[in-house]
Amino acid sequence: MKVALFSGSVYGAAEEVAHHAVAHLEAAGHACYYNPRVDLAALLAAEPEALLGITSTTGMGELPDTLMPLYSELRDQLPSALRGLPGAVIALGDSSYSDSYCGGGMLVAELFDELGVQQVQPMLRLDASESVTPEADAVPWLERFAKALEQQA
Length: 153
Hints:
Strands 1, 2, 3, 4, 5 and 6 form a six-stranded parallel β-sheet that branches. The protein is an alpha/beta fold. The longest helix has 15 residues, at 13-27. The protein has six helices and six strands. The chain is globular. The chain has helices at residues 13-27, 40-45, 68-77, 103-115, 134-137, 139-152; strands at residues 2-8, 31-34, 50-55, 86-93, 118-119, 124-127. Residues 3-146 form the Flavodoxin-like domain. Its cofactor is FMN. This is Flavodoxin. It holds the Pfam family Flavodoxin_1.
């Protein structure tokens, strides 16, 4: 299955998780498209069969500036080509900011609902206050995601 990944990062951790996810999903037999600065036209041109959004959280639970252009395009246009695709979200946050913990990921998950993307497993929350290796912490979740995609094919 062809998985399009997009990410939003402030300090690079979400991009690192995304690169790790690409390697893991490709090793599991899925084709991947990932561009950390993708716009809607390029995302749609990739003709994804599944979506994976990976984002950190900034400020008071907002998305990083790097993801805002794509997020805005998706919300404004709600492209029908994405409706019904399987997908999932990985959220990076810091639980010491309890009011806004993983708020960026929650925004992406809500957007997936609006787009009609079928989330095939619960959002993964990676807590910066508990881990220094979010890309390694994501592996068990990525394994389940890869299997869930196989069941969708």
